[in-house]
Amino acid sequence: DCVLDVAIYVRVSTSSQTTENQIIELAEVCERNKWNIVKVYNETISGTKGVDERAELNLMMKDASRKKFDKIVVWSVDRLSRSMNSLVSVLSQMKDIGVDIYSFQQGIDTSTTMGSSFFQMVGIFAEFENNLRAERQKIGIKRALENGAKFGRKTKLTDDKLREIKR
Questions:
Q1: pLDDT truncated to tens, each residue of the chain (167 aa)?
Q2: Bridge partners of residue 108, in order along the sequence
Q3: pTM here?
C-alpha cells in the first residue's frame, strides 16, 4: 500500500502564542495514519490576513501545485483562514490540483464527500464567529469613547512647545 505524503500547516495569531503543541499533536496523527510528513509550514500571523500576506500559506499552496504532497494536515479549519472567501479559495484551489485537507479538531477530511461538505460548513461558522467578534469589538470601542477613553498615541506637544509654536 502506498504512503501518503502530507504537509502540516500550523499558525498562531501572535508571537506570544506557540505552534509547538499543534505540531506535536499533528505529527502523532500522521504517525497513526502512516502519513509521511514532507514539510511543516509554520507561521505567526492573523488568520484574517489574505493568502498574499501569509508567506508560509503561500509557499504551501505553491508546493501543493507542484505536487510535493497529497494532503494538508491542519489543527483546525480556522488555522487556514478565518474568512469564508479566503477559505473557499484555498479549498477550491487544493481541490482543483487534487490535494486534500485534513482538519484534526473537526475530524474532517476533504478526501471524503461528507468531509468536503462539512469543511465548508465549518468555514461558514468560523466567519460568522469572526463577524460577531468584530461587532462586539466595535460596540466596546464606542462605549469606551463615550466614557472618555482616548485611543492612539499620546501627543508630544507640551505646554512649553505650544507656547514656542505660538511665538
A1: 578 999 999 998 888 888 899 999 999 999 999 999 999 999 988 767 766 788 899 999 999 999 999 999 999 988 888 777 778 788 888 988 999 999 999 888 999 888 888 777 776 777 787 888 889 999 999 999 999 888 888 888 888 888 989 99
A2: 103
A3: 0.69
Contact 108, 119 (CB under 8 A): yes
DSSP code for 155:
P
How crowded is residue 22: how many other Cβ atoms within 10 Å of its Cβ?
A: 24
Is 13 one of the annotated active-site residues of the chain? yes
Q: How far apart are alpha carbons 160 and 167 in whole angstroms?
A: 11
Q: Which of 13, 46, 65, 92 is catalytic?
A: 13
The side-by-side arrangement of strands in the sheet containing 4-12 is 35-44, 4-12, 71-74, 100-103, 108-109
Mark residue 98 as left, alpha or beta (left: phi above 0; alpha: psi -120 to 50; beta: remaining).
left
Joined together, the cell numbers standing for residue 20 give 509547538
- What single-letter DSSP state applies at residue 138? H
Residue 76 carries which side chain, given as an amino acid letter? Answer: S
Site of grid cell 460548513: 121
Centre a 10 Å sphere on the Cβ of residue 75 and count the other Cβ atoms it contains: 23
